[in-house]
Amino acid sequence: LKRVDDSLVQQILAPRLFQTIRQSDMAKETIVVIDLSLIGLYLLLVLGVGWLGWKRAKTRDDYAVAGRRLAPLMFTGTMATTVLGGAATMGSMGLGYQYGISGLWLATSLGMGLIGLSLFLVTPLLKLNLHTIFQGEPFVLI
After folding, report:
1. CB burial class (10 A; 0-12, 13-18, 19+) of residue 44?
2. What pTM was estimated for this model as a whole?
């Protein structure tokens, strides 16, 4: 076996190796710039929406319950976002993984409950002028 001279290896392989490392570093820097730009854009969007809400809200009801001007479909949407948070979505996936098709019952029952809410309870709830559902008397909707 012939022994390769170290200087020959450095002359031939080192430039290619360093060129690959430099290209990899440039790609990482590009990704970092794109990530930071998207985060900054999202931050500006959230601050803009918050500023618009701050300017439009004149009373406590404007802030807490959108001035009581929500249509039944929008009210159902806000209730759905309250119920279907991370626990329901991630929990449903965990139940599905653990128990198979039986884990579908959580998501199905939540969906059916929201359909029932939107069909039968939205209009009476809107007429109660509450800030939260728990402010009302028990069985006041019946």
Report:
1. exposed
2. 0.48
